[in-house]
Structure formats: C-alpha cells, structure tokens
## 1
Amino acid sequence: MVRARQQRALPPLLRRLATWAFSSTFWIMFFFFPFAFLIPLVVVLLAVRFGSRLFREFFRELENPDRGRAFRQTAGGSLFRRPLSREARIFRLAYKLKGRITISDIVLETGLSVQEAEEAANSMVDGLRVRMEVDERGLVIYEFPEILSRFNRT
C-alpha cells in the first residue's frame, strides 16, 4: 500500500501572503509605488503653468485696461487661443501703431508677402472702419478711425 503524502497546510499568514503575491494588487503596487511621487509633481507643475498664464493676463489688463477688454472680446483671451485671422492680425497691428499703418508695417509684422498684404489691406477698406489715405509725399496710409478715436480721447 502506497502511503499518501500528507500535505502540510501553510500557516494562515503565509497563505495570505501567497494569495496576495499572485493578485493584481501586488503587481500594481510593486511597479507603481516607485513612481508615485511623480503624480503630485506633475499636478503642481501644471497648476503653476496655467496659474502663471492667468496672472499674466490679469496684470496685463491692469496695466492697460482698454487693450485687455478690446482684445479679449475680439481675439479670444482664453488660455487656449486659436490662431488669429489675417484681418485680426492687421487690426492688432493697427492698434499697436495707434491707428495708422502702411503696407510695409503689415509685411514686417505679419510675415505676409507684399502682394498678400496689399490685397488684405485693400479688401478691408470700407470707408467706415478702414480708410485709405495718400499723404503729401505719396505714401499710402491705412487709417482705422475707431482705433484713432481711442488714442485721440486723451
């Protein structure tokens, strides 16, 4: 008669450790724990990045309130800005140069070719928001009356 081997039962603590070692919880903790400090670090870095943008916009508006409100409404002042259209870039340039610009200004600031800048400026001329004037030297100047009125108030 063959004697059946008696298997010794594992002590309860060892049995619990053995079942835990083969569970998914063990492996998640084993591989994740060394990198656990990165999560708060990433959260802090993201908070600093977006917080600094918010404060930058806030202080810009404090320095020049008209500029902040005007551009926030027309060009979008959110954290995720969409690219500005050609006309919006030209209006922004006109504001920067106090309402009077030339084709050369448009070319230098926007990177458009001379022909594209001329077409864009001429398409914007409507006599109300944008006027084309020729000065005594023969220089073509595009005037933005709405923007000029802002600077002539003071």
## 2
Amino acid sequence: MKIRWLCRTLLMLISVGVLGSFSDSVAQGSEKITTSLKCATRYQEPENLYDFKKRVKEYQDNGSWDKTNACVVQEAFKALKKYESMPGKKAIVSDIDDTALNNRPIIFKQDFGYVRDIYRDWEILGQSIAIEPVRALCNYAFTHGFAVFFITGRREDQRTTTENNLRRAGYLGWTHVYFKPMDFEGSSAAEFKRKWRQEIVDQGYTIVVNIGDQKSDLEGEPQALSNFKLSNPAYLIP
C-alpha cells in the first residue's frame, strides 16, 4: 500500500510540474555558480586570503623559507669574497627586521596583521633570534676587513634595545646602525635608506654588498656593487 501511495504521489507531482521546477532550479543554480566562476576569471579575482596565508605558513614549516634565504646569502658570500682584495674602504649594508633578526613568531601570532604598538612591544623585548646565514655573512665581513652597517626602519628611540638584541643574537660588531629619523613622514622607506647609504659613501666607503628582505631596502642611489633580496612573502614595505 505504501509503495502504491508513493508512486501515485510522484505521478501527481510530475503532473503539476513540481519535480520539473525542482530539477530546473538545481540546473539554474549550477549555471549561476558557473557564471560566477566565469566572472571571477574574467576580472582576475585574487587568491583567497585564507589559502594564501596557509601557503605562507607551509612555506615556513617545510623549511623552504629558510632554504631560499640560505641560497641568497650563499650568493652574497661569493660576492663578498670577490671584493676582499679590493683596495680602499669597503662596507656591507644589512637591513635588520626579517633580514638580520627573525620576527616570524610575532608575524604568525598576529596572523599576518600589523598593529604598530604590538610590534613595538615585541621589538622592545629584544628576543628576536638571528637569521643565521645573514649573521654568518655579517660576522665574516666584520672579521675580514669590511665595515658593517645596519639600516633599519625602526626609529632612533629604539637604538639601545635594538643594538642589545643584535649582540644577544650573536652579531660580533658593526660600525654603525642607522635608524629611521624620528621626524620621517615619507611614503617609502627607500627615501631614508638611500640617504643613509649616501652618508656611508660620503665617508669614503664603497658599499660592496647590500642585503634586505624588501625592495625598498635596495632601491635608490647610491647603489651597492651587489644587491641581494631575501624572501619575505609575509608583508611588504614600500
């Protein structure tokens, strides 16, 4: 009886077009999804932020980030050694954050967000460890006749904590650390970093190597004889 009743019910639904409407709506929904994908492709929808952050974390966790930077520094070592016999005053320049010192713990803790007060508290703690290949490069330079200069986006009022952190992280020494001027309000870090490189050159140095994790660490005149950019997919500083 139940089977016979079910069959009669299905026939009735078909006769009044309910099932047809349901199947049509499913098809229309599929078409709408297809249309959405077509539009996203046409206008080049960017990668989903969740997926991108996941890939950056995997890049860190599987060691690829460190391996990429080690490869870059290996090339910087080759350049440095090539200039060892060059006469005159020779210098290398290094950025600090995510070049000389590793800030990835706070980057991942903040889920790639940036709140200046939180980052400043992190910097004041002075607990960042060295990015080992860069430390090896700077210490080699320091013990082989090169002047070592750091140019950082941190402000001048962070000098003491920053220099203490560099020492704690194993950097043997340097000639000077240049900070972002307290009154700087420019649109790009390249503006003040270029200015400090000019000051180094004006002291009679030839900058043979410049290394940083941002393009703005390397842009503008004067240029080093060799520039090296480390990997940093976590953020961009213009």
